[in-house]
Amino acid sequence: MTEPKIILTVNPGSTSTKIAVFADETRLFERKVDHSAADLAPFDTIGDQFQMRKAAIVAALKAEGFDLGTLAAVAGRGGKLPPLARGAYLVNDDMVAFLRHRPIDQHASNLGALIAHDIAEPLGIPSFIYDAVVVDEMEDIARFSGVPELTRRASCHVLNMRAMAIKVLRRDGLRLEDANVVVCHMGGGVTATVISGGRMIDVLTDEEGPFSPERAGRVPCRQLVDLCFSGDYDRKSATKLMRGVGGLVAYLGTNSALEVEARIDAGDAEAELVYRAMAYQIAKGIGELSTVVMGKVDRIVLTGAIAHSKRMADMVSARVAFIAPVEIVPGENELEALAAGTLRVLRGEETPNVFVAPPRARPAAEIRRVEEASRA
Ligand SMILES: Nc1ncnc2c1ncn2[C@@H]1O[C@H](COP(=O)(O)OP(=O)(O)O)[C@@H](O)[C@H]1O
Ligand SMILES: CCCC(=O)OP(=O)(O)O
After folding, report:
1. Domain for residue 12, yes or no?
2. Predicted ipTM beyond 0.95
3. 371 pLDDT exceeds 70?
4. What integer pLDDT is reported at residue 325 of this predicted model?
5. Given the CA of residue 185, which atom of ligand 2 is nearest to it?
């Protein structure tokens, strides 16, 4: 009998870091470390959280008495890289450098590959990402933003959305390839997608859709431009306003939907209105994506940690149930999906993709200098 493959999976989310160790398909243990808005406030960028999050993981593994020497691979949640294909990518030097120095965006998932690589490299074992948040299968028509310089790109909770859609359909004897499903993941970030014929043909990213516990979501763009040039913000602080201290944090000072619900239960009318507004925006997003498949939606799936909330699930369902049956599948199985994908690679059933960093875009001023020099 062959020895089981031991895999450490790492899922840095905006409000928590989750890890689990698997022996083949069997989960040996799982740990979640929550990061409150106050814990995260001192960090300017996601990259600055690397040591804090890695230390939390190492401490959790130590508390379990886990021997790192038994590991066959480490898998991290894939972050804000350029658009990728579905499936596995080996974490290589190009990917590490890209995520460290020029990630497309600030998101906790950027730390998935970095932490996985940092743990795996000294052990002489590979690290992988699987179904990264930037898997992009959008159709050409979905890429228009209205400004030619700004192309819409996919970014969502890919791992969990696909896994939950497959689970719901399989239970009803259906296949993802044969259905139209709108999935909304409600966690620290909220994103939604419409999956048609097995592909995520359009996506509501966390910057174009509903606000969420710590993100602003879609905002009035002219006012945003004014805000950026008001003199009160630089690039870092304006970015953080959108991601990190937006949404529930901005309105209510907490990234915890659980805390907001406790305040509502205690009679806080402001908390109730903000939470209801979040549900309203989520429902509008689902409606928007339903038009992509002309309303022919087989299932709407609500998932993520906030789908545990009956209050939120009811508020959203009430507005979208006219479109299609609503399935509530709380939580996420991102760690299982990471382990399952990595196992396929280790067993030789899937070949990992190779990440090649795109060339750096040259700033307009540099291009002008080069052109002027060549004319001279
Ligand atoms: N049972 C629950 N009901 C409502 N909200 C919950 C519940 N459990 C967790 N949450 C909320 O879900 C959000 C975190 O989602 P999660 O997906 O775990 O985070 P991350 O995006 O960091 O991975 C937090 O706002 C948390 O308060
Ligand atoms: C970038 C989309 C994924 C996302 O928002 O994840 P979290 O909810 O974990 O922040």
Report:
1. yes
2. yes
3. no
4. 98
5. 8
